[in-house]
Amino acid sequence: ISAERMTPHSVITINEEIKYADEVADISYSVTTNLTNMTSTNPNATLSYGEEYYTKITVNEGKYFGNISVKMGTKDITSEVYNASTGEILIKRVYDNIVVTGAGLNY
To answer: What is the chain's alpha carbon radius of gyration, rounded to the nearest angstrom?
Structure first.
């Protein structure tokens, strides 16, 4: 199809089979938590490609939340998935290994 022949109302139909979908579904990713004076409701999980990941982080008694960092692969996704007011982390679709890092600090 030539882009020159397309109009804003053109419809393109693609009937190409998606290859390797089963292989992608079989890929597993790990969740690693590096928490000090904190706990996670779902630490060190193993997830399949595309799965959702949820955990709630709580601080130990007598501590307060320090910085929390959430990385998927090399990308810092903290601002997209971490709710500081509830301590919840929700990743809608896992596509790489996850590392959750944080520390509860003294008052």
So the answer is: 20
